[in-house]
Amino acid sequence: MRNVPPVDLPSADDTATRDTRFFGQPFALAHVFGVEMWERFSFYGMQGILLLYLYYTATDGGLGMDQAVAAGIVGAYGGAVYLSTVLGAWVADRMLGAERVLFFSTIVIMAGHIALAALPGFAGVIVGLILVAVGSGGLKATATSVVGTLYSGTDTRRDAGFSLFYLGINLGAFAGPLLTGLLQNSLGFHWGFGLAALGMALGLTQYSFGRRSLPDEARHVPNPLPSSRYPLVAGVAAAGVVLILVLIFTGVIRADNLALIVIIAVIAAAIAYFAVILLSRRITSEERSRVWGFLPLFVTSVVFWSLYQQQFTVLTLYADERLDRNLFGWTMPVPWVQSINPVFIILLAGVFAAIWTKLGRRQPPTPTKFALGVVIMGVAFLLFLPFAGGGANSTPLLAIAGILLTFTIAELMLSPVGLSAATKLAPEVFQTQMVALFFLSVSLGTAISGQLATLYDPANEVPYFATLGVISIVMGVLLLVCVRPVLALMRGVR
What we know:
Layout: H1 12-18, H2 29-55, H3 67-83, H4 85-96, H5 98-118, H6 121-148, H7 158-186, H8 189-210, H9 230-249, H10 258-279, H11 285-308, H12 314-321, E1 326-327, E2 330-331, H13 340-359, H14 366-382, H15 397-425, H16 431-453, H17 461-481, H18 483-490
Antiparallel strand pairs: 1-2
Helix pairs in contact: 2-3, 2-6, 2-7, 2-8, 3-6, 3-10, 3-16, 4-5, 4-6, 4-16, 5-6, 5-8, 6-16, 7-8, 7-13, 7-15, 10-16, 11-14, 11-15, 11-16, 11-17, 11-18, 13-15, 14-15, 14-17, 15-16
GO molecular function, one term: peptide transmembrane transporter activity
Membrane topology: Multi-pass membrane protein
Domain Major facilitator superfamily (MFS) profile: 32-487
């Protein structure tokens, strides 16, 4: 239990609330904002050209893979990124603390981008994607947890602060595809991957100088692992690596079924995670109820991300083959389409933050925001229908911009709110791991998006976009109907 501060001094919570030096938020948010921005620059810069690198022919600088298999690999990789948040969160909660894991993760990410840039062929893809996936997973869960430590439980700026944090993510996501796409278009894929490595190096440098000003709570290990169990953990980790290698060499894990393998692994991890938290004797009955309240949000999030993450699979194929990218006689690089969504995020994140701040306790509760987000996402998929069946270069760029604007509104209703909800609903001893649970929903949705992409047929688009759009809308309506019982489970958290 914390010591009570002297009556003539403000409490720690009061001090945090009065710190408004970073656009009305605590100044320490600037440091996490910065490293996340550069990580997103490198991540989305690389991902913007990854699918093209996999399926472009060797004469165009690519590896010449089948399009459907390549899209499945991209989806599986994205799912693996968010799946690895489980590992990062566990290490943070049991061994190192969130802040230290965040720092080491930036180093691993940079090494992954260097491998993609320097190693030729599939060797670079395998080594690079594994390192980036592990590092990005560690950074994602811990960065969000560190942001959560900057606010007291009653600070109404929390959702606004996460929206501002989300703005930093999208500043990097906007610039990354633009610059890597330009380099890929003019100098080749490996130059684009090299720029992603440089971006992560800048993020690591910036964070190295600012990490000391973060609160001590960010370095706290909530549930320390006894030192006697370290050898067991090392043995399990080694066995896991050996098992994966055996499955690869025996042909169980292949390029064409990688997305399905990741889906199965994430479902198993999510079930195990919920079971571990709910059955733990270290959480109170109120905390257990809140975890149950998080479950419908988790399922809704999976549906949302299975559509949203198709920006990096189906939409990339769509932009390469169907989109009219001619701008006054100049053909826009395909990866630039990935920068449209971040532009809207940059423009609207502040608007949403201002709305939530203005409304304060009158803003819609979290389940309502989730429901509206997944409904709007379904509408976005239905907006593809008027352009279904068109030929090459038949879809206007303005139409895709409008669809991606709808994507953005849906995203802002759910994604930053989901990050915030995970920190508010988290039991005390499972803080970072609860954030990892939210990212597991992103992982599962992303892997599903890769599997769905293998079903996309440009010659018969109506069933694809209509079915997914309707499913998403129905899911949102179901959650709207269940808002009150979900809030009852959340025990006062809105």
